[in-house]
Every structure is written in C-alpha cells, then in structure tokens.
Amino acid sequence: MKEFLQVLRRFVPPYKKYLVLTVVFNILSAVLNIFSFMAIIPILQILFKTQAASVPAGLMDWGSGNMKDVLINNANYYIYEMIESMGATTTLLVIGLFLAFMTFLKTGAYFLSSATIIPIRTGVVRDIRNQLYRKITSLPLGFFSEERKGDIIARMSGDVQEIENSIMSSLDMLFKNPILIVFYFATLLVISWQLTLFTLVIVPIMGWFMGFVGRKLKQKSIKAQSLWSDTMSQVEETLGGLRIIKAFCAEEKMNRRFDKINSEYRENIRRVNTRQQMAHPMSEFLGTVMIVIVLWFGGVLVLNNMTLSGPTFIYYLVILYSIINPLKEFSKAGYNIPKGLASMERVDKILMAESNIKEPEHPVHITDFKSKIEFRNVSFKYDQKWVLRNINLTIEKGKTVALVGQSGGGKSTLVDLIPRYYDVQEGEVLIDGVNVKDMGLHDLRSLIGNVNQEAILFNDSFRNNISFGVDNATQEQIENAARIANAHDFIMESEHGYDTNIGDRGGRLSGGQRQRVSIARAILKNPPILILDEATSALDTESERLVQDALEHLMKTRTTVAIAHRLSTIKNADEICVIHEGEIVERGTHEELLAIDGYYKKLNDMQTL
Predict the structure, then answer these.
(1) Model-level pTM greater than 0.85?
(2) Where is it located (predicted)?
C-alpha cells in the first residue's frame, strides 16, 4: 500500500479537482444508498403486519431523546398515518416509489463518482508516457548502448498499459470503497452495535485469507514483464535483420527462438493470472460464510427479542451485504496493484535513470563559433578500457580536419565528444576557449550539424525531414537546401513532391537519396561546425559522386571534422589525423602523410591496389 500511495502522490496532484468531485459524489452515493435501503423496513412491516405492534403514541421532538429512537418513532408514526388515511396497499406503493426515486439518485451519484475518476486514470497514464518519452530524449547515448530497444519499447507500451489496468483501475479502491465502508459500518453500528462487534471478529480473518494469494504476485509479475521485454526485443531484432534471416535461411531457427521466449512468457503470465482469478471466488465464498455466521447470530438476537426486530435485521443484512462488495474490491485490488507496481518499478528504471551529461548550473551561452575547437590532453573510456588517450588537436575555424584509421580506433568517439554525447574522463574539449561542459547543451548543439554513415530519417514527408531542426522554415529555404544537396530533382519526381512520405527510416529511398536528404537537412540548419561520420562509405560510385558534390557545397565556409574510410574523399582536407588504438599517430596533409611512409601510406596503398 505504501508503494501504491507513493505512485499516487507522484502523478495524481494535477487532478485534485477531480478527486474532490469523486469524493463528494461517493459520499452522496453512500448516504443515498443507506436511506434508500431503509425503505425496506416499513415495506416488511406492512407485508408481515408487524406495524400494529409498534404504533407510536405521537411525534417526538428531534432533541427529546436518542437520535435513533426519535428517527424510528417518527418514521413509524408517519407510515401509520399513511396506512390509516390511504390504506396499506397504497402506502406500499408510495414507499416503493420513494425507494425507486432514492435509487435513481444513488445510481446517478455513483455514475458521477465513476465518471470523475476517468480523467484521473487517463491523465496519469498520458503523463507517465509523456515523462517516459521526455526522459528517453534527454538521456545520453551511453544509456541506450546498455539497454535493448525492445525492452524500452516494452516498458513504454506493455508496462504503462499494465499500470493503467492495475494501479489506475484501483483508484476506486482508494476513493470510493473506504467511503462506502465507513458509512455502511457506521450504519451497522447504529442498527446493532452487538451484532457489529461480532461481525468485526470475522472480517479480519476473511481479510487475511483474501490477501494470502496476493503476497507473492509482485515478484511473479516482475519476471513476467521482464520476459515480455525479451519478447519485444526479439521482434525488434527480427524486423531489423529480416534480410539476413532470409539470406541465411534462418527462419525456423528464429521461429524456435521466439517460441521459446514466448512460451516462457505465457507460462509465467498464466501463473500470475491464475492467482489473480482466485480473488473473486475466494472473496465470494468468504463473504457468504460471513453472512451465514452473522445470520445465525442475528437470528438469535431476533428470536430472543434482544434489541433487534425482524425487519430491522433484514435491513442490517442488506447493509452488511452492501459492505461486502467494497471489501471484495479491496481484495481484487490487492491482486491487481502488485502487478502494476511491478510494471511501475520497471518504468522507474528509465524515469529515475541518472544522466551523466548534466546541464551546467550557470551555463555559458554562446550564439556563434568564432575561432577554434580544441582537444586538450583528452582521454576517454566507456567502461574499463581506454578508447582515447592523450588526444591533443586544434581545429581552426573554416578548416577541414579528417580522421582516418582502423575501425574501432576511436574516431567516432572523438567527434562525439564535441557535442557532448559523452563526457571525457581526463582533459577537456573547448570551443572558443570555453569547456563544452560549461556551455548550455542546446547552445552547443545548435552550432553543430551531423551527417552520418547511416542517414537517420523519420517516417514523414521530405519537407518535414529536411526542416527537422529548423522551426518555421519556408518552402523556398527548403527547396534551396535540397538543390544544394542535389536532392531537389528526385524529390520533385516523387508522387507528391515535398509532401511525399519517405517511409520508415526513409525505406522508400535509395542509400544515396537518403544521404542527400540528410545533407539537405544539415544545409538548412546552416551550422558553423560540421561533423561528417563516413558520410559516403556505404554508397555506390554514382551516388558517392552526387553526395560528395553536395558535401563540398555544405563544407564551404564551415569548420568540418570528417571521418573517412575512403581516403579519396578527404585528400583536400587541411589536416588529416591518423588514429591508431586511441592515439593520434600521424598528422599532416595528404602529400605530407604519403611522404612519411607510415600508417597513412599503407592505408592509401591498400585502397589504390
């Protein structure tokens, strides 16, 4: 319960007005329910002709005695008067109409209490999804190298849905059932405190049995949700690797692998749901046992003429049975909430994740790049092994510096330090003499444009992909960027021009077309610093020529850091740095490095053979 209340304290406060309304309507529903069922007493008195035995002498003043006695006396007096003036059958009809009217009011209040809880349920789930999405976009790239995408998707879909189905659906338990239980219990005390005390001995025993099955449910739910994440990860991997799966005829192998995970998930969720389904029959049986015991004890009180009449005892049983349903809801929630808390625990692993890329408390705001980028004694490691060691590099404004070397040597890591995707462990990265850790992240990344080996596009139109990083871009600006990137012609040849949807990750385009759209995006952003991460390595010769031409347009007047495997694309760079095992082992122009006859010369010779 403590964990459940903590979840509510985190997410429910924005919906306080709905809470107030649902509490008010629940109180109204409980009161109307009590008074509507009170009409059962005179109905039974009329039907079994017990009214004459208790005809009141007259009306009692409301302050003249015990409130219960005054209420019973005056109600009996008015009913007796009605019987005398209208007859028993007509009085029975009037009381029945009163019961129907009170029931109408009660059900109306009950509906309003449920209707006012719905905005809370749906709003909280929306807020959790929004918080998750914002957290995902704010976390550093390093977080996602340790987490599987399928697992994150499972937490945002299945786990959040489980929170809605389990925790949010149990809000009635907290804001409706306690009110009903308190009012019904107070009524039971007023009717017969002796019988109610006897009932109180039974209720805790019943409650203990109801909670017995739910105690281990949370642990089982965590395991089931973890297996659901494995299932989603398998689907995500399969969608991304379908070409390889088919090429290696591995369909059956993947099917068996998926079936194994899926069956394990099914078995765990079967156990959880089986236990959950025990809630209703168990509470139904225990509730009936309680009624039987109370019926026996109350019958003794009635038959021995001890403080309780037959009609009043029937009314007592009706109220007691009414209190069982809220108690059953408590029992049901006791099984549901652990499942939701297990999912909330998994969601919190993302929501509570610490970002090691923190916005400085008093950031230095920059709007332009003026002089140089400097790596000063930079060393970096992801875990234990150093990826970069003692990097010293200065990139002057307007110059192009190329990074070449073996795969895994640290080239991409080096350029990722400029926009602070990662923070260095030793040394510092400076722009215009200011440490990037002291800059505002938005200001820093606004200065930088990226064109990567894999063109990352979105399932949207050409227009929205090109203008992705620029708000309120005009059609003319978008077209100019596309022309410079050699993309305008093939865009205009598409079905709807710039409004054509390019498919998931640009799947409807060729590799060269995707790359030129991403270059157009960088051109429109117009950043003073440009990072090219093997932007042409995955292209055919014709596409490479078109993309290289677009890149040359993009690189004009910009400071460029280019990672390249094809040395032909960076021959004209102002400086080429050869990175080997995390260190800069050679640097100079193309001709100077060839003359050294070292690593660069070997790379060049291998590509010219």
Answers:
(1) no
(2) Cell membrane
**Residue 26 DSSP symbol:** H
Structural domain including 191 reads 2-351
Q: Which residues contact 386 (CB under 8 A, 6 or more apart)?
A: 379, 380, 582
Backbone phi and psi for residue 450, each to the nearest 5 degrees, phi listed first: -125, 135
Tokens 């987490």 locate to 147
What DSSP string runs through 405-466? ESTTSSHHHHHHTTTTSS--SEEEEEETTEEGGGB-HHHHHHTEEEEESS----SSBHHHHH
Domain count of the chain?
2
Whether 478 contacts 466, CB under 8 Å: yes
- The reported pLDDT for the residue numbered 177 is 82
The angle formed by the CA atoms of residues 110, 116 and 118, to the nearest 5 degrees, is 110
The tokens of 539 are what? 């292209």
Q: Which residues of 38-56 are buried (b: 16+ CB within 10 A; e: fewer)?
A: bbbbbbbbbeeeebeeeeb
Query: Comparing C-alpha atoms, which of 574, 568, 562, 569 is closest to residue 533?
Result: 562
Q: What is the maximal distance between C-alpha atoms in the chain? A: 124
Q: Which residues pair with 560 in a beta bridge?
A: 400, 530
Tell me: do 317 and 404 sit in the same domain: no
DSSP structure class, residue 5: H
Collect the ranges in the chain with pLDDT lower than 70.
1, 46-74, 203-225, 243, 276, 278-280, 283, 287, 305-307, 328, 331-335, 536-544, 609
| Nearest CA among 288, 66, 75, 329 for reference residue 193 | 66
The answer to the question of residue 397 being in a domain is yes
Q: Report the run of H or E that residue 376 belongs to, with start and end.
A: strand 372-381
Beta strand 400-405 with 386-396 is: unpaired
pLDDT tens digits along 287-309: 677 778 888 888 888 877 666 77
Q: What DSSP line would sit under 521-536, residue for residue?
A: HHHHH--SEEEEESTT
Within a domain: 288 = yes
Q: Tens digits of per-residue pLDDT, 344-379? A: 888 888 888 887 888 888 888 888 898 999 999 999
Residues 294 and 333 in one domain: yes
Q: Is 136 in the same domain as 81?
A: yes
Cβ atoms of 528 and 432 closer than 8 Å: no
In angstroms, the CA 214 to CA 336 distance is 8
For residue 169 the two structure tokens come to 């659906």
Q: Listing from the earlier edge strand, what are the strands of the sheet with 559-563?
A: 448-452, 529-533, 559-563, 400-405, 575-580, 583-588
Residue 196 · residue 308 · CB < 8 Å: no
pLDDT of 504 = 81
**Interstrand relation of 426-431 and 559-563 (parallel, antiparallel or unpaired):** unpaired
The number of CA neighbours under 13 Å toward the Cβ of 385 is 6
Q: Look at residues 302, 317, 351 and tell me which one is the last residue of a structural domain.
A: 351
Please, which residues bridge with residue 401 across strands? 561, 575
- Is the CB of residue 96 less than 8 Å from the CB of residue 43? yes
CA geometry: angle at 437 spanning 433 and 442, to 5°?
A: 100
Cβ 220 vs Cβ 271: under 8 Å: yes
